[in-house]
Structure formats: structure tokens, C-alpha cells
């Protein structure tokens, strides 16, 4: 009785050489020295609203607008951030600002 066959026996053994520049898997890519672009005012405000959507302490956000959620949290004494209210008041008709992060996902 011979050696027990393994599934890897059917695949050829491939030995890899290091690249011409001597790169190996453990090395990081060189730093290009580029910094990320600063966010625009709208992008900063949208990020603030996304963080508000993800903050569970103000209650669920599905099925209502961000402004409705902010008012509900205020009525319940949960002290929602006033910056969120200011952003929502400054963009009254824009669905990007008024609708929650989950608005475009079906319930």
C-alpha cells in the first residue's frame, strides 16, 4: 500500500522568483506623497448627516426624514446635535440632505 493521495498532488508545484526590483509580498507600496483632497462644504455637511443617521442613540431613522428624526429626538430629550438642525434648515428641499442614509434602500 502506497502513500495516501492528497488533492494537492494533482497540481504542479510552482516556485516563484522575486520580481526584478526585489519586491516581495511583505513590502508596502511606495508613498506617493499625495494627501487626500479636502472635503467641500457640502461633503462635510453630508458626512455630518451620515454620522447622525448612524448614531443609534437618537432612535431609528428608517421611514422618516432626518428633520423628523431630529425633532423626535429633541422631544424625547435625547439632545440631538444643533449643527445637524442648522444643516437641515439650510437645505430645505434637497433630498440629499433631507432623506436619511437608508432612504434609497427598500424596506
Note down, in words, how this protein is organized.
One of its GO terms (cellular component) is delta DNA polymerase complex. This is DNA polymerase delta subunit 4. It comes from Bos taurus. Keywords: DNA damage, DNA excision, DNA repair, DNA replication, Nucleus, Ubl conjugation. It is found in: Nucleus. This protein is 35% helix and 0% strand. The chain is built from four helices and no strands. With 107 residues, it is mainly α. The radius of gyration is 26 Å and the shape is elongated. It has a domain of 69 residues. The model has no long low-confidence stretch (mean pLDDT 84).
Distance between the termini: 62 Å
Measured by DSSP, the beta-strand proportion falls in under 5%
Low-confidence stretches: none
Order of helices and strands: HHHH
Largest sheet properties: none
* Helix fraction by DSSP (H/I, runs of at least 4): 25-40%
Q: Which structural class is indicated by helix and strand composition?
A: mainly alpha
User: What gyration radius follows from the Cα positions, in whole Å?
Assistant: 26 Å
Shape: elongated
- In total, how many beta strands? 0
On the 0 to 100 scale, the average pLDDT is 84
Number of continuous helical runs: 4
Region (Disordered): 1-35
Motif (PCNA-interaction protein motif (PIP box)): 1-16
Main location: nucleus
Biased composition (Basic and acidic residues): 15-28
